[in-house]
Specification:
Layout lengths: L1 H18 L7 H8 L4 H25 L5 H25 L3 E5 L2 E4 H21 L15 H18 L4 H12 L3 H27 L4 H21 L5 H26 L2
Antiparallel strand pairs: 1-2
Helix pairs in contact: 1-2, 1-9, 2-3, 3-8, 3-9, 4-6, 4-8, 5-10, 6-7, 7-8
Length: 265
């Protein structure tokens, strides 16, 4: 199972290198089902893995001049606050059993992984849907009240499920900041990187024991996969693979529901 888990880490990286995103959403199920890591630790480690891989992708986009750093800061600050508060205060305070209905116990794991599986559906849809290459209508404008709310909500959700939430951030950047799509994609990677890594270091690293050796190995294998995927992208059309990967995420979401709400019972 461990060999399969590390092979999956490589696949996560390759998918990120090939299609530019989405692969890191597999980190939580890989950690939970192949390494038998509990929900708190799986979502914590996923934040580190997602943050590191997004940072690599974001810096690559920066070199291509597809990152608006001012927008990244404006959106990133409330998102960082949201994820850090959830990881430091909310997650450690969640009881093992959230509530009971008759003989049915709704556990913390069900809540966290159930929400994760639900949000995998819009993530998959965002990969299946063809993005409209919207050009900027002119000067970047910020809707600060909505940005604050959106950042806190996305940060809070990221903190609960351990995923980056790029599929939520990209349309928000286009709508709330009036920036073009390719810049929104690059900027979202930087936002995901900083909110995930800071949420991990300011939250989880302070509240749980981290197996740094395992985390470094898993992340390193994923990073190697990113470079392999980027190289393979010269020969393989990532856009065609993206559609198939979107369907695969649908299947994974159903699998998580089945494992948590049927097999565990």
């Amino acid at each position: 199972m461990e060999i399969l888990g590390y092979a999956s880490a490589l696949i996560i990286g390759i998918s990120l290198g090939l299609i530019g995103g989405g692969g890191s959403i597999l980190a939580v199920p890989v950690l939970a089902y192949l390494f038998s890591v509990d929900e708190k630790v799986a979502t914590a480690y996923s934040l580190f893995i997602v943050g590191t891989s997004s940072l690599v992708g974001g810096l690559k986009q920066h070199l291509n001049k597809n990152v608006d750093w001012r927008t990244a800061i404006v959106f990133g600050i409330p998102a960082i606050v949201g994820v850090t508060l959830v990881r430091y205060y909310v997650v450690p305070a969640l009881p093992d059993i959230l509530f009971t209905v008759g003989t049915f116990d709704f556990t913390r794991r069900m809540g966290m992984f159930g929400l994760f599986a639900i949000l995998m559906f819009p993530a998959a849809l965002s990969m299946l849907k063809k993005r409209k290459e919207k050009e900027s209508a002119g000067t970047i404008r910020y809707n600060y009240p909505l940005i604050l709310i959106e950042g806190l909500v996305v940060g809070g959700v990221t903190g609960l499920i351990g995923a980056g939430g790029g599929f939520l951030i990209i349309p928000a950047l286009v709508i709330l900041a009036n920036i073009e799509m390719k810049v929104a994609v690059g900027t979202s990677l930087i936002i995901v990187a900083f909110k995930s890594l800071l949420g991990f270091f300011l939250g989880d690293a302070q509240t749980i024991e981290i197996d740094w050796q395992f985390l470094a190995l898993f992340t390193s294998i994923s990073l190697v996969g990113i470079f392999i995927g980027s190289y393979l992208g010269n020969f393989i059309d990532g856009k065609k693979l993206k559609k198939g990967f979107g369907y695969f995420i649908f299947v994974m979401a159903i699998f998580i529901f089945y494992m948590e709400f049927f097999v565990k019972q």
